[in-house]
Amino acid sequence: MRQKNLTMDEIKQQYPDQWVLIEFTRLDEDLNIVSGKVVETASSKDEIYRKLLGADVKKFAIEYTGEFPEHEAYIL
Q1: Pairing with 34, which of 11, 27, 53, 63 sits 20 to 30 Å away (CA)?
Q2: d(CA 65, CA 12)
Q3: First to last CA, the chain
Q4: 5-38: per-residue pLDDT in tens?
Q5: pLDDT single digits (tens) 36-58
Q6: DSSP state of 67
Q7: Are the C-beta atoms of 60 and 20 separated by less than 8 Å?
Q8: How far apart are CA 18 and CA 47, in angstroms?
Q9: Beta-bridge partners for 22
Q10: How far apart are CA 55 and CA 19, in angstroms?
């Protein structure tokens, strides 16, 4: 599924409300993803972690492209 290099804004637009496995190509000074290639997507956190097990990536991050409810906290 690996695609062309996208900015984080483009990833959020193309994959709304999804968990996204990204092979990042550029980070900012705060280690936020600036750009990368989408390797896998999933609608649940558990599913994206299962897909990670079979992925061939070295520099990766998992991001959620939707909004988290204010009353919830997530530790990844």
Answers
A1: 53
A2: 5
A3: 23
A4: 999 999 999 999 999 999 999 999 999 999 999 9
A5: 999 999 999 999 999 999 898 98
A6: P
A7: no
A8: 11
A9: 38, 61
A10: 15
